[in-house]
Amino acid sequence: MSLPTLEQLLRLQRGYYEVLSSWEERPWGLLGLNVANPGSHDSNHAYLTSPLQPRQLPQVLAELRGFYEQYGLGPRLRFHTPPNSPELARMGERLGWSARQEAETWRAWPARDQTEPWPRVPGLTLDVVRAEALEQLLLVQLEGSPKASKERVRRVWSCLCRDADCCCLIAHVNGEPAAC
């Protein structure tokens, strides 16, 4: 089985988000909302799914601000490079937004879009899996989680794995589940 395409990864990510929140479509992407869980980063953010020119960013940010402020939430925008350029983050910073990115040790982009090599890890294997690997996926997802969140995580992943279109990428190091 080959590695998933960027489109497949984005569909998987959107499927995960739809379990957690309601989403409104916009020409540039999606607005996610779950007022019952205001502290959830994954529940309450906008997700840019189309390429956006930096000059278009002020209008999108104004739209986010207006949407989330009516619910008492701070606006957040998540996007990936590619398909968007690093200049988009620089424009956001010039407009007073933080462009702090979550740390990644490697990026799951198709090889043609890869911006940096992932670390070579002895014994590392990557596999595309489905519902049959739910328990392996949960080993990774639940590691170090507080007891209160373990049942929520189990429910989310169980729901994702019931979807016939859902596939996950799992990493093993020396045969042990290490990341997904």
Set down the secondary structure blueprint.
Blueprint: H1 6-20, E1 22-26, E2 29-33, E3 46-48, H2 57-69, E4 77-78, H3 86-94, E5 124-129, H4 134-142, H5 147-162, E6 168-173, E7 176-179
Parallel strand pairs: 3-4
Antiparallel strand pairs: 1-2, 2-3, 5-6, 6-7
Q: What structural class results from the helix and strand content?
A: alpha+beta
> Which regions have little confidence, pLDDT < 50, spanning 5+ residues?
101-116
Helix content: 25-40%
Strand order of the largest sheet: 1-2-3-4
Number of helices: 5
How many β-strands, per DSSP? 7
Global outline: globular
Order of helices and strands: HEEEHEHEHHEE
Distance between the termini: 16 Å
Beta fraction of the residues?
A: 15-25%
Q: Gyration radius, to the nearest Å?
A: 18 Å
Residue-averaged pLDDT: 75
Major pleated sheet: 4 strands, mixed
Structural features, described:
With 180 residues, this protein is an alpha+beta fold. 34% of the residues lie in helices and 17% in strands. It contains 5 helices and 7 strands. It has helices at 6-20, 57-69, 86-94, 134-142, 147-162, and strands at residues 22-26, 29-33, 46-48, 77-78, 124-129, 168-173, 176-179. The strands form 2 sheets. Strands 1-2-3-4 form a 4-stranded mixed beta sheet, sandwiched between helices. Strands 5-6-7 form a 3-stranded antiparallel beta sheet, with helices on one face. A hairpin with a 2-residue loop joins strand 1 and strand 2 (29-33). The longest helix is centred in the C-terminal third of the chain and has 16 residues, at 147-162. It starts with 5 loop residues before the first helix and ends with a strand. Mean pLDDT is 75; it is low at 101-116.
